[in-house]
Design brief:
By secondary structure, this protein is an alpha/beta fold. It has helices spanning 42-48, 66-69, 72-81, 95-107, 163-168, 176-180, 222-225, 242-247, 253-262, 280-291, and strands at residues 4-10, 24-29, 32-38, 56-60, 87-92, 114-119, 127-130, 134-140, 148-154, 160-161, 185-186, 193-194, 200-201, 208-212, 230-234, 268-271, 297-299, 305-307. The strands form four sheets. Strands 6-5-4-3-2-1-18 form a seven-stranded mixed β-sheet. It has a seven-stranded mixed β-sheet with strand order 7-8-9-14-15-16-17, with helices on one face. A two-stranded antiparallel sheet has the order 10-13.
Length: 308
Amino acid sequence: MDCFRVSILGCGSAKPTLRHSPSAQVVDFRGNLFLVDCGEGVQVGLQRCHIPVGKIGHILLSHLHGDHCLGLVGLISTLGLGQRTGEIVIHAQPDAERIFRPLFDYFCPELSMEVRFEPFDPTQNAVIYEDKALRISTIPLHHRVPCCGFLFEELPRPRHLLIDRCEELQIPFAYYQGIKLGNDWTDPESGKVVPNELLTSDPTPSRKYAYCSDTICAESVIPIIQGADLLYHEATYLHSDVVKARQRGHSTSLQAAQIAQKANVRQLVIGHFSAQFITEELERPLLDEAQSVFPNTMLANEKLVINI
């Protein structure tokens, strides 16, 4: 399975509206589900997007403002009611366990699964998860409380094997995996070394997704997210409200587009919209403003699914 997609469950800011729920999205990488932020309404969003809640293995919290984490207790309670087993890991700043563990103990006292907190330092760009195919690292952001985004990076893929060439040289099948990983091959009879570049072609490029939640416009993220295939960046306000945006620790749609342009990303999705944008018509200027700088921009919305 080569799936790598993002499902938006909520893309509003602090105040829920009839149009948008607070922040939450699911990253599906080859069937492994990562919930990124967990605002109110997350369970409805999961149902709306037909995402099986019981298959979520990791929850990543960008920061501890309510619109990014207050759906957590209800979600864990529902998983308990469903007799979820195994382990669910919550990646968050260290204060998260102090805040949420007593709530879990009170509201979900007999969980059939283990809930483990994995703390990280939101001020550091560091790896917080890695397996054989995916790496997740933090992106330090600048908000009113400690906050970070997340970078999902597909690890380098193996090279493509030139089967016809390998068969022509009568290379045993047992050597194929090593050749795909970049090894040369030595003919055991002649001792001749066949360079790897004659046996393989370049691998399919790896993919990257960057999630930048609440933050003032910060060019410090650019080296980290450089060349991402997809960037989700908050755009709470229009640039006419740039002073308010900075005072409240947020970005404008124009600033999000400028970050996308300077980071040379392929596609930008803007979200975390202020509650003042209560209709599609009022929201449209956010898109127009961003596209004036970075044309390949789209507006987030609940039920939006983006394949990377």
